[in-house]
Amino acid sequence: MGFGTKTWREIEFNDNLFKRQKKRILGLTFPATDINLGLEPSILNVLPPGDNVEYITDNRLFNDSDVEYYACSVYISGYDEFTKWATQHNPKKIIVGGYHPTTFPEEFERYALKIVQGPCDDFYATISQEGQVVRGIISNKNLPRRDLYDIYRNQQIIPDKMPQDTVVSINTSIGCNMKPPCDFCCTPMMCDKLLSKPIEMVENEARDLQKYSPKFIFIRDENFTMQKDWKSRLRILHEILPDTRIYLFASANTLNEERIRFMSTHGVYMVCLGMEDPTVTYQKNSILPKVIELLKKNDVKTYLSFIVNPLKIIGKKAGENFYNLLTERFKELAPEMVCGNFLMPFRGTKLWDEYYAYVSPEDYKHYDSKTPFLVRNPVLREKMKFFMFWYQWKYYTSDFYQKNVRKFDSGDTLHLRFMELYNHFKIIYERNWNIRA
User: Fold this and answer.
1) What is the rounded CA–CA span in Å between residue 209 and residue 77?
2) 255 to each of 177, 274, 317, 320, 360, how far by Cα in Å?
3) Residues 6 or more apart whose Cβ sits within 8 Å of residue 48
4) Which of 96, 162, 316, 324 would bridge 112 by S-S if both were Cys, CB 3.0 to 4.6 A apart?
C-alpha cells in the first residue's frame, strides 16, 4: 500500500534514519553511580523524553560531534571527577546542575553552557532561559526516565531486604517547611520551601512502578508527613502497590498515634527518623521516645540516623562519653536500624560560619558522610571511621538486639553490608592497633 509516492517501508526507513541522525543527550552523575548501594539517580527526573537520550553509569569520554548535550548532576564529592571529565569535552555542550552547582555556581562557569540552580524536571524549558546561571523549572509533565536505568540492581541497605528483592523509589515532594531549618541541613539550599507534586502525577508514577513488581518502595521526600495531604498520597501508593513495603523519611513532631496507625494500615513498613547528634536536643526530636513506642506498637520498624561531630570526640574520654551516650539511646529506643554519619558542614547552613575555616576544596571528595574530614590527623581519622562502625556493629550483634529487636544474622542487605565492613576493618585494626573486631 502506498502513501503518496512513498511506501510504508520507505517511510519507516526514513524515520529510523532520522532517529539515528538525532544527536545524543547523555545524562551523567558525579561521582559515578554506585551500582552496589544506590537507588535510581535523581537525574532521571531531569532527562527529557526521546529515544536519543541515554543515562551513562561510568562517566567515560565521548565524541562531542555525536552529542547535543551532556546533562551532568554534580554532588560535592564528585567535583574533582567532574572537572577532569569536563576539561576533555566542549563546554558549550555541558549542562550542569545538582547540589554543588547550586551553591557554588562560580566554580562551574568555565565548564558549562548552563548552570542550573535548584531542582528541575523540565530540561528544555530550563536551559532555554537567558544567562549562564538559571533556576531549575519544575513542570510536573513527564515521568522520570526509569527506562534508561536497570532498576533491578538497586540495593538499599535496609532490614529484611534480601539481595534478590526489587526496591524502587519515588518523590512525591521536594524541599522542607521546617522553620527554622535544622542547622546542619542543606535541603533549603536546593529548595527553600515544600513543593508537592500534583497528586495525579503521584498516581501515574505509582502505576508506572507496577511493572517492576517491587517488594519495597522508598518515598524519598525529605519529610513525607509534612505535606497536608500525605494520607491521600500514601493511600494511592498502597492501593496501586498493595504488596509493596513502604519506607519513608519523617520527623517525630509530625507523628501521633492516629497518624502512625494510618501508616501501619497503608503499607508503611519502616519510618526513617533523625536522632541527629545525641548530645544535642532538637525541637523536632523532643517526643522521639514516645513516637518510637507508638511505631513499635503498630508494627512499624524504625530507622534512626545519627550525626557524629568529629571535633567533639577527640581524645579517649570525649569519644567514650559520646559513644556511651549513643549506646544508651540505642537501648532506650531499640531501633531496627541505625546509620551513622559524620558532620558535613554545608555552605549556607547555620553551621557553615562555625566550620568553614576547616573546609577547603581538597575536602570536597570527602563529602560522603563516612569520612571525618574536619580532623586532619590521618591516623585519628581512620580510628574515628572504625569506631563509628564498631558501635553500630556492637549494637546489632548484642544480646539486647537479638532478644528485644530482631535477629541480625538474617542474610538481608543490612546484615551483608555490615559483614563487609567487619571484614574490611578486621585485618586493619587487629594488625595496627591490636583492636579485636
Assistant:
1) 30
2) 15, 13, 36, 33, 39
3) 25, 123, 124, 142
4) 96
| Upper half-sphere CA count for residue 359 (Cβ side, 13 Å) | 19
Q: How is domain 2-135 classified at the CATH fold level? A: Rossmann fold (3.40.50)
Separation CA 316–CA 320 (nearest Å): 6
- The boundaries of every CATH 3.80.30.20 domain in the chain are 150-433
DSSP 266: T
Return phi, psi of residue 432, to 5°.
-85, -40
- If phi over 0 gives left and psi between -120 and 50 gives alpha, with beta otherwise, what is residue 170? beta
Question: How far is 126 from 96, CA to CA, in rounded Å?
Answer: 11
Helix, strand or coil, per DSSP, at residue 281:
coil
Q: Nearest 5°: phi and psi at 342? A: -80, 150
Among residues 264, 187, 200, the alpha carbon closest in space to that of 226 is found at 187
Give the torsion through C-alpha atoms of 387, 390, 396, 401, to 10 deg. Answer: -70
How far apart are alpha carbons 227 and 235 in whole angstroms? 14
Across-strand partners of 341?
Answer: 307
**Contact yes or no for 90/111 (Cβ under 8 A):** no
pLDDT of residue 266: 98
Domain with CATH 3.40.50 in the chain: 2-135
Angle between helix axes 413-433 and 378-396 (nearest 10 degrees) is 130
Instruction: Please tell me the predicted confidence (pLDDT) of residue 353.
Output: 87
